[in-house]
Amino acid sequence: MKRLLAVLLCLMLVLLPVFSACGNKSSQNGDVEMTGEVNVEVADTSEMDFTFSDKDKSAEYSESDATKLVFSDSGSTVTGSGATADGSNVTVSAAGTYIVSGSASDACLTVDISKEEKVQIVLNGLTLSSKGGPAILIKTADKVFITLAEGSENSLSDGESYELSVDDTTVDAALFSKEDLTINGNGSLTVNGNYKHGIVSKDDTVITGGNISVTAKNVGIYGKDCVKLGGGAVTVNAGTDGVRSDNTEDTSRGYIYIENTMLSITSEKDGIQAETVLKLTSGTVTLLCGGGSVNASTNSDGSFNGMWRPGSSSSSSSSNEESAKGLKATSDIIIEGGTVSADTADDCIHSNNTVVISAGTLSLTSGDDGIHADNDLGISGGKIDVTKSYEGIEATNIVIGGGNISVIASDDGINAAGGNDSSGLGGRPGMGSFSGTSGSISITGGYILINSVGDGLDSNGALNVSGGVTLVNGPTDNGNCAFDHDGTATATGGVLIAVGSSGMAETFNVAENQGAVYLSFSTQSAGSSIALCDSDGNVIAAFTPSKAYQSVVMTAPEIQKGNKYSLVCGGTVSGADANGFARSTTLTGGTTVTSFTMSSLTYGSSSGMGGGFGGGGKPMRP
User: What pLDDT score was predicted for residue 305?
Assistant: First the structure.
């Protein structure tokens, strides 16, 4: 009996490491930089005016000094100087303030004053339609201010078909201006662009107040030199683009700037597109473009869906190319704050050059990419939630130094590749013909969560992690991997846990200051935690994946050469966040699937229950 008990005790001691979990001790947190450098160059904006003058914002006017215009089908009237009536039509020919009211079913208010003069048009209960052109036509002026009187309701509509031009300029909007145009005030304005566009200025279009609703057959709001939205609530329903600026002749023009505005756009094509820079600093932007992500041109497997397809390439040197993107710029997109909610058939955010995000709250549901930049993409702050995408975040070079980022992708989660975006494959707008070994991903800070069907992190060049927390729910099929690179992958800081299939799995091939580990094992079920513990049983880092997995790539400051570690799956992690991530915590239960010693700062091995490799190497691709 004593011999039998001794044998059983020995067996228990041998088997114990296989079934034990990490102990209840907590190690000290290693230093993890959650905010890192993001050095991404943007276009020169010094000649762009991202401000609003006092006059732009002021809705004040002197009623006693103003000329009164009253529209009527039986004949409009003018009380005061500076304007004349011709039947129902009225022409303003001198600088000053004009209070406009009344109703007419076929009339036009025309402004034709000196190029050096300004005029204020106060709409105070005006309903104006014109069958043969715009309801308001601004021919010449230095600048026109349209003020919406407090509490007033106003409406402008043009005809469904007309031919009209001013000095070789085609007139094609319900509110049309050849000169700088500002809309302010605290009233409401409804604009119906029955012929083509809603509000058009061939110079600057500025909106700083009012409750404005635009419905247009083509573009909702257009400013050739710029569109600046600095207040009020603006709703656009457009047959083509919601808001557009497209000056291609001057690199300091063709921009769009948004602050402190509630902007809601439903568009058949792009929501907001700028020829040069699109900048957002505050406000709320809601976009539904191309019918939304359900109208993506391809299914999640890349096959053609047929719901929506652009008339031409989704990427070009001009913003006028047809697509159904949310925020779009030929040059740069700069987001410094505000809230964006976008549901788009094409990319939610797309730049043919650079995207820089430093703050704001972004909720992106895309039929293609969540965020795309042909060249560089930098994220230093903000909350970004890509709830649906083909590829979540895509650019040639990606630098993430801060922010809280969540990505769900039917292909790659974060993809860095060379070349320009193209719709050349399968007709998917923005599908991209990225190729070659250029491109890079650099993570210097931030909190990143990825759930991808394709590769989680995919770089056609270098992949560097020096800070932040990165969690990857990678693919379950062996044709993709959670961590993929074609160049050097370097770990110098931060925490990364990437789990997924093992058939194509890769790991870091350079580590400095801290170690990097690759391990493969038998398939673990979704919701089964994975934890790396040191020799004292302290939890270094733990994560609870949302999908089944059979390999892990991990780096953390506590992984050091010469130390022994164990990998435990299926335990209960104490103090984990909503994504199942925790550091320096406790773990109960679970199964130790492997133990190992770091002979160098890079390690890769198999527990014998699945594929794997040794020595921190990289598996051969089939």
Answer: 59
Give me the mean pLDDT over the 342-369 stretch: 97
% helix, strand, coil for the chain, step of 5: 5, 50, 50
Predicted confidence at residue 304, as pLDDT, reads 56
Same domain for 219 and 245, yes or no, is no
Q: Are residues 522 and 611 in the same domain?
A: yes
Q: Which two tokens stand for residue 24?
A: 């209840």
For residues 290 and 78, give the distance between their C-alpha atoms in angstroms, rounded to a whole number.
Answer: 45
| Pair (261, 399) in one structural domain | yes
3-state secondary structure of 7: helix
DSSP, collapsed to helix, strand or coil, labels residue 5 as helix
Let me know if residue 28 belongs to a domain.
no
Q: Comparing C-alpha atoms, which of 360, 413, 364 is closest to residue 388?
A: 364
Domain that holds residue 282: 240-435
- Which tens digits make up the pLDDT trace of 510-536? 999 999 999 999 999 999 999 999 998
Q: Does residue 561 have a pLDDT over 90?
A: yes
Is 440 domain-assigned? no
DSSP 537-599: S-EEEEE--SS-EEEEEEEETT--TT-EEEEEES-EETT--TTS-EES--EES-EEEEEEE-S
Q: Which of 574, 573, 559, 565 is nearest to 592 (CA)?
A: 565
- Position 4 confidence tier, pLDDT thresholds 50, 70, 90: very low
282 shares a domain with 430: yes
* pTM of the entire predicted model: 0.90
Measured from the Cβ of residue 63, the count of other Cβ atoms closer than 10 Å reads: 11
Q: How many residues does the chain have?
A: 622
Give the whole-angstrom CA distance, residue 253 versus residue 275. 8
pLDDT for res 14: 32
My answer on whether 251 and 175 are in the same domain is no
* Cα three-residue angle 274-280-282, rounded to 5 degrees: 150
Q: Does residue 182 belong to any structural domain of this protein? A: yes
Which residues are bridge partners to 493 per DSSP? 466
Is the per-residue pLDDT at 134 higher than 90? Answer: yes
Same domain, 500 and 608: yes
Tally of domains within the chain: 3
